[in-house]
């Protein structure tokens, strides 16, 4: 009977152990495992959201880069256009200034030519009078022939 009583005692002890484990040990273990599973699921969901946010951010960055490239291209084209305009304006200003300088120079040259002609006339008339005086010293009276000399001077 000892064998049966030992077996019965072990069965009762085992049943108490199972009941104690099911009542006091198993629920906290299952709660901890459920909480751990929930945290893992939340972490996976957060990782997925982070991945989606990262993809959205990458798309936004790509769009912003594209826009920035387009703007920089527009700015460069605008700057080149403005530079060409400035060059053309400078050319036009230089042409106008050159034309003005040429016109001023021509006007000044014409004035110098007129002064030189006038001076030459004066000298030629003086030489003509002096030559005529030397040839005809006795016959030329400058007071009598002043009108004649003035007309000769005008003709030269």
Characterise the protein shown here.
With 156 residues, this protein is an all-alpha fold. It has one domain. 92% of the residues lie in helices and 0% in strands. It is built from 2 helices and no strands. The longest helix is centred in the middle third of the chain and has 134 residues, at 2-135. It is rod-shaped, with a radius of gyration of 61 Å. It starts with a helix and ends with a helix. The mean pLDDT is 86.
What's this entry about, in short?
The chain is mainly α. It contains 2 helices and no strands. Helix 1 packs antiparallel against helix 2.
Key attributes of the depicted protein:
cell membrane, cell inner membrane, 2 helices, transmembrane helix, mainly alpha, 92% helix, 156 residues
N-to-C SSE series? HH
Radius of gyration: 61 Å
pLDDT < 50 stretches? none
Strand pairing plus helix content: what structural class? mainly alpha
Number of helices: 2
**Beta-strand residue percentage:** under 5%
Q: What is the 3D form?
A: rod-shaped
Main sheet specs:
none
Q: Could you say how many structural domains there are in total? A: 1
CA(first)-CA(last) distance: 173 Å
Please tell me the overall pLDDT: 86
Quantity of strands, as a count: 0
